[in-house]
Amino acid sequence: MEIKKGIAVSPGVAIADAVVLDAEDYRIPYKSIESDQVEAEQERVERAFDTSLEELGMLRDQMAEKFGQDTGAIFDFHMSVLKHGRLRQQILDAVAQKGHSAAYAVSVVMQSYQKRWRSMKDQFFAERYRDVQDIENRLLRNILGEQREDLARLTEPVVLVAHDLSPSLTANLNQTEVCGVAMDFGGLTSHTAIVVRSLGIPAVMGLKDISISIAGGNSIIVDGTKGLVIIDPDKATLREYQAEEARLKVFADVLVELRDKPAVTKDHVTIQLLGNIEFPPEAKTCIEKGATGIGLYRTEFLYLKSETEPQEEEHYRAYREVVEAIGDRPVTIRTLDLGADKYTQSRQVEPERNPFLGLRSIRYCLQNLPLFKTQLRAILRVSKGADVQVMFPLIMSLMELRQAKMALGDAMEDLEEEGIPFQRDIRVGIMVETPAAALQIKELTREVDFISIGTNDLIQYTLAVDRSNERVAPLFTASHPSVLKLLRDIIRTATRANVGCSLCGEMAGEPVYTLLLLGMGLRSFSMAPADVPEIKKLIRSTTLAHAERVAKRALTFDTDRQVANYLRDETRKLMPEAF
Ligand code: PEP
Ligand code: MG
Fold first, then answer.
1. Which ranges constitute the DSSP H helices of 223-297?
2. Same domain, 244 and 271
3. In ligand 1, which atom is closest to the CA atom of 433?
4. Does 504 participate in catalysis according to the annotation?
5. Domain boundary among 207, 229, 250
6. pLDDT digits (tens, 9 = 90+) for 290-343
């Protein structure tokens, strides 16, 4: 048994066999073979080695011819690893003695090989583990050829273990049997984390080397609440977690009973609880969990679902599906937040050097007006007869807001000329997720109907901490006194200006911040649908007067640790079962 600690990004417990994705998204399933298959499988190993060596020899010669001997020498290293007699023998032995399939034997032996390289003290050698990864990929390509397994074909629940997940793979997870996720990369508010949380899949990220510490077929527990991954658990641990799984189920059932009850404090203040969605089918989940509308529809996920750029009809169909599922409840459609870690980056000829500070979100849309207008037309069309509002992300200046509104005005004019109906007085809002917008909130609120605070980005930009980088994850916290002050001022200014104010960052769904935000004056929260019942329970167990006292006190502390400890204690008093 081995226990690894990472970042708890999606609560709950998953117990299943592991499936490991390597960098190329191969799935190497655990597969045992019969003794009469040993020879054939060993032959596949031998052939893969020979073909790989031939390929590498050719590559080396080509590169040497084009760029000189030094460049060609990179492949000498790969060749020397493959020629290393013991490696081939170890894999052949794994087939004969352990009854592994050729692919599985390569995967297991190469993973342990990678681990050894990675643990070398000398940085130069340690970095070479990536080459070992390349070699493994080449061997597997030559063994599996076209037979790559894909996740869609899984028939049993599995825990997915990976270095990182591509956005498109993440976008399709809901169509698989994946019941838990463990990853080397990622932080609490990375987009992979947001999606797995939306799907209610327990997950731990930022585990650094889980993908090379485990082989497919290992039994594994993901504790997404504590941020732990347990490899090959012993019997006692397994029993303990099976009991925990059952306990969580009971707690979830109790929460479901709250679905049709209002989110109202004990002193009769009604709070709006909305859902965040990425995909249209989640609209239904929002209602099932007791949300009264959608506060954030992240439309850019439409791009991650397909290889080609979505056209107006595709946008329209997706929005229509959401609006129909949600009935007469409100829906806030956010315009495309592409860039940074989403979509455009992987398709860029020259990737962004500083993705989160680069051409992302509204900036990307304003530089790609035809794409932007395609979306705006679809939003306007769907707004006819529905409670839809449009929201621009990452606004950092009045000029940007005005340009975005101008594009919306142009789209309206076009539709009008074409005689296509739409909602002319559609409500227009912005996300407040840059310190610049927070500090100019007074001016911005004069030109919008509503705002929604995007704390995932607001925290990232205020603290200068990459939201998806596990190495700095402990520094990413909503409890920082500077973040608290910004939030207090944004909420206060928007409320005074009589402009709708919601908060849709992950913070909205974290119980420890509920009292604080309520006490600061927030009356609308938007979160992953799965978080709604718990937050509702908390709201129903407190009074506004108490929340105001908690917020006031929280604002007096000088360090994030004091704030976090205080809020945790206050929340625990109200809802001990959440901890
Ligand atoms: C945010 O930044 O808080 C937010 C809700 O938007 P996203 O997570 O999609 O960047
Ligand atoms: Mg954001």
1. 235-256, 282-288
2. no
3. 2
4. yes
5. 250
6. 999 999 999 998 887 666 789 999 999 999 999 999 999 999 999 999 876 666
